Amino acid sequence: MILLDTNILARSAQPGHSQYQSAIVAIDTLRLRNETLCLVPQVLYEYWVVATRPVEQNGLGMTAAEAAVDLVVVVQRFHLYRDERAIFDGWQKVVLRHQGLGKNAHDARLVVAMERHGISHILTFNTADFSRYPQIQILDPKQVAAGIPT
Predict the structure, then answer these.
(1) Which fold has domain 2-145?
(2) How confident is residue 145, by pLDDT bands cut at 50, 70 and 90?
(3) Residues 32, 117, 81, CA angle at the centre, nearest 5°?
(4) Which residues, 6 or more positions from 138, have their beta carbon under 8 angstroms from its beta carbon?
(5) Residue (of 30, 28, 60) closest to 47 by Cα position
(6) pTM for the full model?
(7) Could you give the 3-state DSSP secondary structure of residue 2?
(8) What pLDDT, in 10s, does the model give residues 92-138?
(9) Residues 136/130, Cβ–Cβ less than 8 Å
(10) DSSP β-bridge partners for residue 121
């Protein structure tokens, strides 16, 4: 199972972005390999923020109605794991253990959700952000799209 990071969803929704092609090809490649592509609610919350933020502020510029329709499509395309109470307790331990400061605390929560749901890999453009977590495998979409073994 492979978790899709927020940046994968965002870039796959931006045909004019330089990372668009890598995101789309990586998703398609993993699907052809019969991989289960997953989401957790945090990814959807973060995607909503990006989707509804103005284009001038590095967002997608969607209205709330457009983002709501887009979210329905995204949830239908990928397997969604729900939040569980145990994720909070695990998150507290992980941010302390790995010094998850600032924005890195979001990544720590994703890692705990992955562990809780048995998800071993994450597909992300932000590979360095997850390198502090040896318990997960990080997939770079550019490498997946180029056919480099993961």
Answers:
(1) Rossmann fold (3.40.50)
(2) confident
(3) 70
(4) 121, 122, 124, 127, 130, 131
(5) 60
(6) 0.89
(7) strand
(8) 677 777 666 566 667 888 998 998 899 999 999 999 989 988 999 99
(9) yes
(10) 2, 137
DSSP letters, 70-127, are: HHHHHHHHSEEPPP-HHHHHHHHHHHHHTT--TTHHHHHHHHHHHHHHT--EEE-S-H
* Helix, strand, coil share (%) of the chain residues, nearest 5: 55, 10, 35
Please report, rounded to a whole number, the percentage of residues in the chain having pLDDT higher than 90: 70
Other CB atoms within a 10 A radius of the CB of residue 114 amount to 24
CA 107 – CA 87 distance, rounded (Å):
13
19-28, 74-83, 93-102: range with lowest mean pLDDT: 93-102
* Residue-level pLDDT at 99: 65
The two three-digit tokens of residue 4, written as one number: 């899709």
pLDDT for residue 105: 67
Place of tokens 């890195």: 104
Could you tell me the two tokens for 132?
């502090």
Q: Using an 8 Å Cβ cutoff, are 116 and 90 in contact? A: yes
Residue 89 has pLDDT above 80, yes or no: no
